[in-house]
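Duplicate of #3305? Posting structure anyway:
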């Protein structure tokens, strides 16, 4: 096809599109905005005092390592060429504190806590995990997360949105299985690092894509902690290093 014919067809197509928008009462700008994408930045809280027996809404606070992890993920978010539109967290102390640290990088955002993304244990294929859970608790967790999912992953066709949600490992892994459309009982097959970044996009038509999962590239290996058992983090300066 010659260049002149291709150009003529492109012009005709543009004119037809404008006519269609006009007949529907839409301007070209409105038509463009109808393709808005919601991008959800899911962050697992930082390392916390798991030995604290207090209720997690008042206790189990971040340890210094967890604060450092939160600062690192906050700096990474701040360095992205993205305008963030909201900051959410669960109501549990470790998630709220992580969100507060991240929020120092985004003073224009008001923290919005919600129990919908607080930690719980949904059903899993792992029988050893299910032994310690009651049917009532499992059902309540599933109900909570199924209620939360359409709230945080609703399409935003009018405009692009970039939402930060600081929550928990079980919650994020469950959301990932929902976004992928796979068996939600597979969530425990994934490990997830503290203050890692999981990014999911929601198109205007409701379709979703997982862009990244448990990305902890902003955290040095010796400061990385995760759900899977691993080598304890040693923050002690080696004896061979001489301090002046």
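Output from current build:
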């Amino acid at each position: 096809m010659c260049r002149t014919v291709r150009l003529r067809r492109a012009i005709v197509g543009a004119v037809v599109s404008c006519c269609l928008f006009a007949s529907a009462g839409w301007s070209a700008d409105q038509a463009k905005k109808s393709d808005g994408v919601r991008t959800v930045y899911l962050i697992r809280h930082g390392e916390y005092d798991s030995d604290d027996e207090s209720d997690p809404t008042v206790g189990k606070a971040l340890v210094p390592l967890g604060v450092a992890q939160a600062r690192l993920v906050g700096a990474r978010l701040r360095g992205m060429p993205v305008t963030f539109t909201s900051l959410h967290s669960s109501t549990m102390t470790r998630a709220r504190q992580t969100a507060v640290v991240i929020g120092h990088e985004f003073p224009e955002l008001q923290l919005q806590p919600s129990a919908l993304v607080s930690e719980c244990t949904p059903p899993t294929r792992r029988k050893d995990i299910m032994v310690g859970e009651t049917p009532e608790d499992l059902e309540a967790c599933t109900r909570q997360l199924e209620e939360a999912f359409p709230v945080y992953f609703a399409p935003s066709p009018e405009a692009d949105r970039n939402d930060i949600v600081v929550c928990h490992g079980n919650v994020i892994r469950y959301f990932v299985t929902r976004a992928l459309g796979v068996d939600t009982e597979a969530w425990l097959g994934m490990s997830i690092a503290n203050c890692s970044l999981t990014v999911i996009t929601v198109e205007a038509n409701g379709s979703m894509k997982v862009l990244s999962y448990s990305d902890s590239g902003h955290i040095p290996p010796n400061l990385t902690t995760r759900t899977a058992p691993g080598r304890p983090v040693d923050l002690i300066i080696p004896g061979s290093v001489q301090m002046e």
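Confirmed duplicate; merging threads. The longest helix spans residues 3-23. The CA atoms of residues 46 and 68 lie 8 Å apart.
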